[in-house]
## 1
Amino acid sequence: MKKVIFDTDPGIDDTMAMLLAHASDKIDLIGITTIFGNATIENATRNALYVKKKFGLTAAVSMGTDTPLVREAGEPTTFVHGDNGIGNVQIPEGDLGEKDNRAAHDFIIDQLKAYPNEITLIGVGRLTNLALALQKEPSIAKFAKEVIVMGGAFGYNGHSGNVTPFAEANVLGDPHAADIVFTADWPVTVVGLDVTHQVKMDQAYMEKLRNSSKKYGQFIYDITRFYVDFHKNECQLDYFPVHDSSAITYAIAPELFKVKKGPLRVVTEGVAIGHTMLKTSGSAFPIDNWSDKPVQTVCVDVDADKFLELYMDTMSA
Ligand code: BDR
Ligand code: CA
């Protein structure tokens, strides 16, 4: 079992991914750290606690930051995830349980040190908490087993951005943090729009999931209604692409993904801000801001049918 800390901004697809991690017998979810993005930091943390209580997760929930390293935070993307960040499903009043008393980046530092080379960090929101952890304690890079990120877009399969033509939401939300995380000396795998847009959940799939997953099906169906409407009305899609669960699926079954390797950088200013760029060639250049950075892994294709089967089977077991 992989020990996982899940850094997330729940978030409808974040919640689907969190439940996949919880349901999988390949993952031991030891921590959930929250980040501003799809919801305010208060709502993202409340949603994580709610899901933890409702489904009996044992992971600690630690609240992260609402402030990107350099950029303005902007508003939460409630037009995609609903005002409460979780599709506007009713969240019961009352005690949802205590969060961990450490800030998310301190929780990450402590856990990486407590379990050297055992923890997989999975980030599916802005990467600010991970960058803060690296800035405060650079030595943690050598303690992480693996870092998996849902974010970015490299132009494979025709996908290069979802907020601008060349930037994906999580990376654009804090491009400086993403560049720090991608260039740190730990093994990073990025699962970007190049593959998340290849995996599509449509109405027939969601109905089948609702019926076959006795434990999670109805809840996932309910929280995704808002998300389905957004994709139908604003993007003219009769399905939604599967973003955050792609990072969890990579942790469970990396063999479903095709990858390319090379150093990778993020554009942190100007018209292409948030653009992620992978250098795959070994060529030498007179000026090269990639060549002294570590080689990382980028997913460029996925077996979508097997992925969808894995999600259905894991949630229905
Ligand atoms: C990413 O942005 C967020 O809205 C989703 O939760 C996902 O992490 C997709 O660009
Ligand atoms: Ca997310």
## 2
Amino acid sequence: MISKKIEKAINEQIKKEEYSSRLYLAMASWCHANGYPGAASFLYTHADEERMHQLKFVHFLNDRGGHAVLQNIEEPPAEYKTLQAIFKEILKHEQYITASINELYHLCVTEKDYTVANFLQWFITEQVEEESLVNGILD
Ligand code: FEO
């Protein structure tokens, strides 16, 4: 059984992963409409990956006896200045997500919920890969 505090924190993370998916979909759409088909294809795929992250949390929370609840999320920006600005924004966003996963991990260790902490290991590794990927693209 999962504590209410951790359930709430996981639901917040579900919201952030959903926003990530919508943000990258909005960026993909801008790239598609503005003559960057390669970047659009990359970002459409990346939006799907974020949805997969969201689903991983939804399934896990429900499997552990909690309840995954979807929340209102803000609209992502529709307009971007340049392709480079988009990838800078992605890096900033991924760093924010990494910090959020780390906070969640810290909460689980503090609450001695090592089952959730163990589940989060996958996301910790994933964040290293995602930041590295975006850094590589920016380089
Ligand atoms: Fe779900 Fe890009 O982190």
